[in-house]
Amino acid sequence: MSGEAVDTGLSPAPVAAADRPGTRLNRRRRQRLPIGPLEYTRHWWLRLIVAVTFALLYAPILTLIAFSFNNSRRNIVWRGFTFKYYEKAWHNDSLIDAFTNSLTIALINTVIATVLGVLVAIFLWRFRFPGKPVYEGFMALPIVIPEICMGVAMMAFFARIGWPRDLPWPLSLSSITIAHVAFSFPFVAVIVRARLVGFNRELEEAAYDLGAGQWQAMRDIVLPYLRPGIIAGALIAFTLSLDDFVITFFTAGPETITLPVKIFSMVRFSVTPEVNAASTVLILITIVATVLAMRMQTPSRSEGGG
Amino acid sequence: MDSWRKNPVVFWALNLPPTIWLVVFFIIPLGLIWVISFGEKRGVVDIEITWTLDNYLRALDPLYLGIFWKSIWMAFLATVVCLIVGYPVAFAIAFAPSRWKPLLLLGLMVPFWINILIRTYALIAVFRTRGYVNFTLEWLWEKAHAALTLIGIDPTWLLGARFDPLQLLYNNFAVNLGIVYAFFPFMVLPLYANIEKLDRTYMEASLDLGAGHWRTFISVVLPLTWHGALSGIIIVFIPALGAFFIPDLLGGTDSQLIGNVIERQFKSANDWPFGAALSFLLMYATFGALALRSLIAGRKQGLEI
User: Fold this and answer.
1) What is the pLDDT of residues B77-134, one digit of tens each?
2) Which band of pLDDT confidence, cut at 50, 70 and 90, is reported for residue A9?
């Protein structure tokens, strides 16, 4: 730790060397160099904190996933690899029903929430009007208020207006879907709006000059530009809905259980490897959807500046 | 940006569908809960709105007041732990070599995407009496036992005759751990964003002028990244305050938080007016936290976001 205060002028050089995907020689040279003033990641204590944090973050999740393949009902020690519990989960009708419900709700939610979110984003970007800050505040409410408050509000609302409870299957999910749209479309709006910030309005004006009308300019210029943002928003809406437990817990009836609610009741009842299998499937779906969403949000190389 | 008058048709076409949805399926339900919180329970489902304040007064009952304080305390404690652990981690990611950075960030975000309920459940398998933490402790105990026997000290005096697994679940410790585990990434990401933006020449200047690393952190890094910490504090504190399934799954009989009480009023006790009053108190606490944040952030103005 000595001498850091002295050689600041030299520090860019070792950093640059460290950045290069080093050859062995390079790496060895770096080991010998004294630790530069801002090379915090070369201090063992910081490395230790990061390593321990990541270990603590991942150990429970990895254990959960590993135990979904464990050939033991009590799931305390490893007894060999098996797909048995996935098979069991597959044949568990109520689990599959819950899963089907979850996917159906998530898909319908994605369509509606994406449309509404895109409308909000375009409209807030495009217009100024009196009371705009207040309007934006209300739009942000579903994001900031505690989930449980929204959950009980939806529960009371559907009970009070007498929303029919015994509708045939896809319609029986309507109350949950409506609640999901209400909390997820503001998130879509935030994501799409972030994309709109980089939009060059001259492109739209050029379209008007070339004789396009309002709708045609929107359809041919603005929407294609927004596409990555829209897809990212749609994927986020999908995962938010698929993952939601609290709000669904309050709006779901006994016949309309979703996968997280089902997992919750299974966990409360007893801990079985089937729960691990169901959880692993849910983890996999959300991670894939979110990675795709992230890919969409980062500007692609082919696009060139926008 | 156009004035809305320039294009009223487009304005309303874009505006109406989301606004109607938000008003009908969000604002009205919240308003309904607000009205119910001034009602009185009559029979199983009947609620008469009498504009009484009894439900709010009932929340002042020492029992519920205690639970409120406990929720705030637990959320505060979890936030502090997240902050203390979050700073070095965010720091390490921001200062990591560029080829490590995306990997570390991704590593932090993946747990963030996994369902909180599932992550809470995952903690159970690790922390139960026959879980990995206790297995590790038992293993350490056996080694220590053997070592002491080897050097001729009677281990029973120091370590006891046999290993007693620690009761790590179903108590307040577990609830706090669960909250920290669930919301930790919410803290690190805004912190990271702010540390990344930090102009490092300030730190170099501070170190050049003879300040140590600790001093540099306290008087340079902290004041400049406080905004990120504030965002992190808010987005950990608010959900922690309303958490109800974490105490439900990991807590014991005395770990009830305000979320559990609200849930009980709506799901089993069937006392909606009281539950509604409690949820509104929770919302007011949330708004209070948000207002406090903008107050603090406003004073440090000049730094945006």
Assistant:
1) 999 999 999 999 998 999 888 888 888 988 888 888 888 899 999 998 888 877 788 8
2) very low
Chain A residues touching B239 at Cβ < 8 A: 146-147
Distance, in Å, from the CA atom of A220 to the CA atom of A200, rounded to the nearest integer, reads 14
Put simply, the answer to whether B7 touches A160 (Cβ < 8 Å) is no
Domains along the sequence of chain A with CATH? 7-84 (no CATH), 88-303 (1.10.3720.10)
Degrees to nearest 5, angle at CA A190 with A185 and A193: 120
Check if the beta carbon of residue A275 is closer than 8 Å to that of residue A213: no
Nearest to B92 among A38, A50, A56 (CB): A50
Can you list the positions of beta strands (E) in B129-195?
none
Residue B30, chain A, CB below 8 Å: the answer is yes
Of A146, A260, A275, the CB nearest to B242: A146
Is the dihedral angle over the CA atoms B270, B274, B277, B278 positive or is it negative? negative
Packing angle of the helix pair B62-95, A44-67 (nearest 10 deg): 120
pLDDT of residue A163: 85
B 209-248 residues with CB < 8 A to A: 210, 238-239, 241-242, 244-245, 248
Q: What is the pLDDT of residues A258-282, one digit of tens each?
A: 999 999 998 887 778 888 999 999 9
In terms of pTM, does the model score above 0.90? no
Closest residue in B to A267 (Cα) is B121
Per-residue pLDDT at A30: 58
Q: What is the pLDDT of residues A165-182, one digit of tens each?
A: 788 888 889 999 999 999
Of B33, B119, B132, the CB nearest to A61: B119
Return phi, psi of residue A25, to 5°.
Answer: -60, -45
Segment holding B39, helix H or strand E: strand B39-42
What backbone phi and psi angles, to 5 degrees, belong to A3? 80, 5
ipTM value for the complex: 0.85
Residues from chain A that touch B181, judged by Cβ atoms under 8 A, are: 56-57, 60
Can you read off the two tokens belonging to residue A221? 């210029």
Instruction: Note the pLDDT tens digit of each residue in B139-154.
Output: 888 888 888 888 877 7
| From A8, A57, A275, residue closest to B207, measured CB to CB | A8
pLDDT value of position B156: 73
pLDDT band at residue A24 using 50, 70 and 90 as cut-offs:
low
Give domain B70-128+168-299's CATH number out of 3.40.1280.10, 3.10.20.320, 3.40.50.620, 1.10.3720.10: 1.10.3720.10
> Could you tell me whether strands A127-128 and B2-3 are parallel, antiparallel, or unpaired per DSSP bridges?
parallel
Q: Where are the domains of chain B?
A: 70-128+168-299
